[in-house]
Amino acid sequence: MKKILLAEDDFDLSTVLIQYLQLRNFEVVWAENGQKALTIFQQEPFDICVLDVMMPVMDGFRLAEEILKIHPEMPFVFLTAKQLKEDKIKGLELGADDYIVKPFEVEELILRINNILKRSENNSKTIRKQEIVIGKYLFDTQRLCLKLNTNVQQLTEKEAALIFFLHQHKNQLVKREAILQAIWKNDDFFSGRSMDVFISKIRKYFQDDDRISIESTRFIGLEFKIAD
Hints:
By secondary structure, this protein is α/β, with parallel strands linked by helices. It has helices at 11-23, 34-43, 60-70, 85-93, 106-126, 157-168, 176-183, 189-205; strands at 3-7, 27-31, 48-52, 76-80, 98-101, 131-134, 137-140, 145-148, 151-154, 173-175, 212-217, 221-226.
């Protein structure tokens, strides 16, 4: 049974969501504001978080930031009544696995949660337990981190899976759709924007080795280049 942290200040909506999720064999812990949700998250283990963006005390964006400090690879979904492009981009920059605009069908939410959990499990299985040398860096696939001398960059499971995939196809032009299907299991617009955010982060992680670059070819794909 997978365990969900639901942070939503609308009592009626929360009641409906909890009932449906429990019928689908999820264990649900509910919090009516961001601060209470953070306190609960610090005390209990969860498989995924469903976070309303607009909440009292602490909003969903701030809550996600605090959750990721504790558990960097925790998957999460934003619920929002807004359709603002800026909010979606902010959610993507935080690493959201999905972004659902109210009103929505509960069955859609359940489907997306199941897909995210499946992707998360597949990504963790994809990475072999080994250390890989990438230029000046040491990529520790067991501890999910990049090491450069004494500096250690902690990675999320999805960041690690993406780096692993790119390294497997180094110095090759790989189509965007192939990367999206391999890591996100989806090549829709949302997944594409999410990948762009992750690629920007990974470029920064490798910025101290000028032999490493991720080059984009418009409308085609990406090439993870490692010069000799």
